[in-house]
Specification:
By secondary structure, this protein is mostly helical. It has two domains: about 5-100, Response regulator (Rossmann fold), CATH 3.40.50.2300; about 125-190. It has helices spanning about 5-10, 30-35, 55-65, 75-85, 105-155, 165-190, and strands spanning about 15-20, 45-50, 70. The protein has a three-stranded parallel β-sheet with strand order 1-2-3, with helices on both faces. Strand 2, helix 3 (about 55-65) and strand 3 form a beta-alpha-beta unit. It is elongated, with a radius of gyration of 26 Å. The protein starts with a helix and ends with a helix. The model is unreliable at about 85-105 (pLDDT under 50).
Length: about 190
């Protein structure tokens, strides 16, 4: 949630804020802190949705002012039940934090659908980035293989333009760079899972 979204929330005074923890410009815990810093919206219930099974983050967000935390994948009925239940906290004004909740479940369903749509957009962008990284990896790997072949050819021909020791050391370094590159790519894609 960017600054303009915080300003919009302050202006609109929503009944509820339903948000994903993973956002492109700001983390969910930062958003909760930012929202709670403004008196006029500090009692608006915040329900966070996430696919991350991170207990520390969940506890931190609940302590900082989120009313609930829903794990993905979720059923619409689960979100409706969690959003519709009375909140355990109350605002400084004495009004229960659930007092602004919408009576119609259609609004909740619409918000859940919008979150799912944004999640799909992020997944699409992530897949495009993944493809670009793989393409760059293949280009780098092909270039390293070409350089390796040239150095090996120079070693095989055995002319004395370059000392053999320099060529062998160059070949070892090129192969080391290729291994580091491959392992970095593997770690990057394994960390996504």
């Amino acid at each position: 949630m960017a600054r303009r979204d915080i300003a919009r929330a302050r202006e609109m005074l929503p009944d509820l804020i339903l948000s994903d923890v993973m956002m492109p410009t700001r983390s969910g815990d930062q958003m909760v802190r930012d929202l709670r810093a403004h008196r006029e919206i500090d009692d608006v219930p915040i329900v966070m949705l996430t696919a991350k099974a991170d207990d520390d983050l969940r506890i931190r967000m609940l302590r900082e002012g989120a009313q609930d935390y829903v794990m993905k994948p979720f059923l619409t009925e689960e979100v409706q039940a969690r959003v519709g239940k009375p909140c355990e906290h109350s605002s400084e004004s004495g009004r229960p934090c659930g007092a602004r909740l919408p009576a119609k479940t259609e609004n909740i369903e619409l918000m859940a659908r919008e979150l799912i749509d944004r999640k799909h957009e992020l997944e699409t962008a992530n897949e495009q980035l993944r493809r670009a990284v793989l393409e760059a990896h293949h280009r780098i790997k092909n270039n390293l293989q070409a350089v390796t072949a040239l150095v090996e050819l120079e070693l095989d021909e055995g002319d004395d333009r370059l000392p053999r020791q320099i060529l062998e050391e160059s070949l070892r370094r090129i192969k080391a760079i290729a291994l580091v590159h491959d392992s970095a790519l593997a770690r990057m894609f394994l960390s996504e899972r």
